[in-house]
What we know:
316 residues; Hypothetical protein af1432; globular; 16 helices; mainly alpha
Amino acid sequence: MTSENYEQRINQLLSTAAGLPTLPGVAMQVITSVNDKHADVAALIQILQRDPALAAKILRVANSPIYGSRRGVESLQQAVVMLGMRATHSLALSFSLVPALKLQSEGTLDYALYWRRCLLSATAAKQIAACILPADKEAAFLAALIQDLGMLVLDRVMPELYAGLPCSQMDHLGLLAHERSRFGLDHAHVGGWMAREWGFSERMQNAVAHSHQPEGADGGDSDRQFACCVALGAELADMMLGADGDCDLYRIAAKAEQWLAIDGVSTGGIVESVTRSIPAFERIFDTRLLDQDKLQMISDLAREKLAELRAVASGE
């Protein structure tokens, strides 16, 4: 099916569908701010002040060690300046999206697993982008967080779609095949469509739509790299959420080399950075992503791989 045919089918099936996920007003205002090249700190603060709970979360993050706070941040002005506009936009949208979409959850999708994967993917994508596109690491976090948005849409349009899956919900290639056979579309294409409806940038739409085939992403090299950071974040999340015997760091390293020309040593370092950052993100989002034993096992594997690869590189 061509991209034009996908577009036509999505519009036909979803544009008149009732009950599609909706964004809270503050999230829409933040997206507008993201897309406004002239937006400043004062304008963003005004948006955040309209949602006291959101403002409190931004302040809490600003005082979190994960963002390098060395002194108490007491005001939104200080928080936005310390975090930066990009990080504040990303966090504000994340804090708005997760609870809002959870409340709209319906159908037979395993939402607990869905959101754990989203947050792990986002955490990993941010660490990956920090090595490849450091200026876009916050955007990569957000793109990874919404990359499976299409699954929420399909679950609302066809509540029975994910009942009796012929594969695990963790098997995204199997999910794509199931969705195409039942719906004629997959969640990546639908998610890209929804991201456009919500006003996200073309780059974000592109990353979502190509989240399982990032090398085919539209745009220049930077846009493809961005999409690959998002997709690799999801691959890493799948490894972390899989059975203990499925923790194949070599497969992740192969994907990193193929998609982003990241060598094995750097991949091991990224995985180690992700495992170190997970507890902080769990506190920020008030959720458990991985149990401590699993986290320790993956961290140990990453260190072992790093040591092995460094030994090879040094000729020992």
